[in-house]
Amino acid sequence: DLSSVSFADAESDQVYNSARNQLGLIKYCAENGHVPAETVAAYKKIITMLPAASDAAESEKFEAEGVKGNSYDGAQTVSLEEITVATGSTVAVHCSQYEMLTKQ
């Protein structure tokens, strides 16, 4: 019954799930040697500060897509390769942006 879910809940779920997808992408970057393992640990700490989403299985799916190297918004999946081609970048450069994010 969605009538009991407020917009704020849906919004915080979206923020949390996006963060979980980013965590998966950071894990992908680490596995491919683009960021150090400490970046994964630092981002995990950031996520613990967010309110968890209401559907843990859905959050797992967001992270799992990231681990495969996919940006996922709940409806669409776009690979990091596709993103970097579209932006004229490289996977390594894209991954380094995640590392900078965890050092702010």
Features:
single chain, 66% helix, mainly alpha, two-stranded antiparallel sheet
Describe the structure.
The protein has 104 residues and is mainly α. The chain has helices at 7-31, 37-48, 56-67, 80-87, 91-102; strands at residues 70-72, 77-79. Helix 1 (7-31) runs antiparallel to helix 2 (37-48), helix 1 runs parallel beside helix 3 (56-67) and helix 1 crosses helix 5 (91-102). The chain is globular, with a radius of gyration of 14 Å. The mean pLDDT is 90.
> How would you classify the quaternary structure?
single chain
What is the number of helical segments per DSSP (H or I, 4+ residues)? 5
Order of the strands making up the biggest sheet:
1-2
What is the overall silhouette?
globular
In percent, how helical is the residue content? Answer: 55-70%
Classify the beta-strand content into a percent band.
5-15%
- Strand-pairing-aware structural class: mainly alpha
How does the major sheet shape up?
2 strands, antiparallel
Average pLDDT taken over every residue: 90
**Whole-number radius of gyration?**
14 Å
User: First CA to last CA: what distance?
Assistant: 40 Å
- The topology string of helices and strands comes to HHHEEHH
Task: Flag low-confidence runs.
Answer: none
How many individual β-strands? 2
List the helices and strands and how they pair.
Elements: H1 7-31, H2 37-48, H3 56-67, E1 70-72, E2 77-79, H4 80-87, H5 91-102
Antiparallel strand pairs: 1-2
Helix pairs in contact: 1-2, 1-3, 1-5
